[in-house]
Amino acid sequence: MRRAALLLILIAAVAQAEIVELQPGLFRGKDAFCWEQFPGNNYGVSYLLKVHTSDSPSQAFVSFIEFDDLMYYHGRYVNEATLFLYTQAVTGSGGGIEFGACDAYWDEDMINWYNMPDIHPDTLDSTGYPSMSEEWWSVDVTEIVQGWLDNTLANHGFKLFDEDTGERGATFYASEYQVDETLRPKLVLDLSEEGVEEVSFGCIKAMF
After folding, report:
1. CATH code, domain carrying 155
2. CA distance 44 to 29
């Protein structure tokens, strides 16, 4: 009897699951990079996003990307959230890309090296650079997105950077890329109703 009840609970949880793919284009997309060498310049209209660190002076690049459509999913439980960027070029090897949730609002048409936001320190994480060009680079951002949907963290998007020394970097396509729209940045969500998730685990525990 308990096995049947458990099966029904699991079926209900699966039935409520939803895969959402956010991939905004030219007009709804919000992303930009900042270049240390030209700190007052804005690159919000570029079709590229860049992350780069260098031992050469003023050659660092930092990128920002925000998915505004997440507001339609407030209150949902995030089983998994993955950020995908398509790699246009890779330089150097080793090291890692640091990322986190921006701690303040930024404007795609005004952001530059001087006024770019920092990150919430509790969201700081890192992952390896892409190994080659012309492939998808992905990173798990589940905890950050859950914070946005819970309203425990304001959604100001992601910041991607590399503060280590060395000579390496990566270039990705931005939402302004028009040659192949399928290669624009995307955020893939595996969502379920939060109530279903909580009740399911509570019922499972009660059976044993």
Report:
1. 2.60.120
2. 10
